[in-house]
Amino acid sequence: MFKSALYAASLSLAAIAFSSSQANGLFEDLEYPDNRNRLERAEELSFDIKSLTSQLANDKVQIERKLQTANSVVIHAYSSCAQDPHIDLSQLYIGHDWTTEVIDALEPLVIFPLATIAINKASISYLISEGRIGEAAFARLAGLPPWFRVGQIAGGIATVIGGMAITDAVTGAIHRDKLRHIIHEQIQPRIELKKAAMINAAILESLDAIIISFNALTASNALNEQQLNTAVSSIVEAQRQRIDTIVAFDDKRVKQILHQIDVSKHSWTNEDYYFQDEDENEINI
C-alpha cells in the first residue's frame, strides 16, 4: 500500500512538474508529444530502483537473522547426537561493511561470487537506508547514474530535467534526447538490482529450508554424528543448487521478467533500449 501511494505521489509530482514546465515553454514543441511518456517512464524506472533498494536493505537484515538461526539449529542438531561435537564457525566478510559468523558447512550458500555480488548490493542498500553512506557513494557502489538520489521521494527526474533546463536553450528535441538518456541510464541498474533481489530471495528460501530440515532431524533424534555430517552436506548442496538456478539467469532472462511486470502495469517501454542494437532490443517471452 505504501509503495503504491509513493508511486502515485511520484507520478503526480512528475505531472505537476510537467504542467509547470509546459507553462514555461519546456515542452512546447508539439512535434514531441511522447516527451510526456518519456518523463513518466523515467520516473517509473526511478521508483522501481528505489523500491528494489528498499527490498535489498531488508534482505540484508533477513539474511543475517536467518544465518544466525541456521547456525543455532545446526549446532543444536549436533549437540543432540554427540557429547562434544566439533563445529567450526568463521567470521566471514560477505558484503560491504558486513561481517558475520557462519558455520563452515553453510559457507557455500553465501560465498560463491554471484551470490556475494547480490549480498553486497543488499549490504550497501542497508547502509544508505541507515544513513551510513552518502547518496553519491551509494550511486557509485550500486552502479547507478551519478545524478540518482534514492532518498528523493518524488519528482526526481523532473528535478533533473529542470536543472538541465537552467543551462540549456531547451527545445522539445533536446528534452527528448535527455529523457532518452535518463531512461537508458536506469535500465541496466534496474536489471542488476532485480537479479540481486532474486538471488537474495533464493538464499532466504534456502536458509528457511535448512532451518526446517535441521529442526526435523533434531526432533527425530535418529542420526549419529557421522550420519548427520552426511545429511548436512546433502541438504546444503541441494540448497546450493537451488540458488544456482537463479544465479544462472542472464540479463536476458531478467529482462523478460521485468518486461512481464511492465506489461502488467501497462508501462510505456517504447524507448527502453533505444541506444541498443535492434536485435538486442527484442525481448522474447
Can you lay out the helices and strands and say which pair or pack?
Blueprint: H1 2-23, H2 35-79, E1 89-95, E2 98-103, H3 113-129, H4 135-142, H5 156-167, H6 172-220, H7 225-247, H8 251-264, H9 278-281
Antiparallel strand pairs: 1-2
Summary of the model, kept short:
This protein has one domain.
Descriptive account of the structure:
This protein is mainly α. It has one domain (25-281). The chain contains nine helices and two strands. The protein has helices spanning 2-23, 35-79, 113-129, 135-142, 156-167, 172-220, 225-247, 251-264, 278-281; strands at residues 89-95, 98-103. It has a two-stranded antiparallel ribbon with strand order 1-2. Mean pLDDT is 79; it is low at 12-29, 165-169 and 278-285.
Number of helices: 9
Proportion of residues in helical segments? 55-70%
Distance between the termini: 29 Å
Mean pLDDT: 79
Number of strands: 2
Number of discrete domains = 1
Question: Could you tell me the radius of gyration in angstroms?
Answer: 23 Å
Shape: elongated
Residue fraction in strands? under 5%
Oligomer classification = single chain
Biggest sheet descriptor = 2 strands, antiparallel
> What is the H-and-E element order?
HHEEHHHHHHH
**Low-confidence parts lasting 5 or more residues at pLDDT below 50?**
12-29, 165-169, 278-285
> How would you write the strand order of the largest sheet?
1-2
Derived structural class: mainly alpha
Characteristic key phrases:
285 residues; two-stranded antiparallel ribbon; disordered C terminus; 5% strand; 2 strands; mainly alpha; single chain
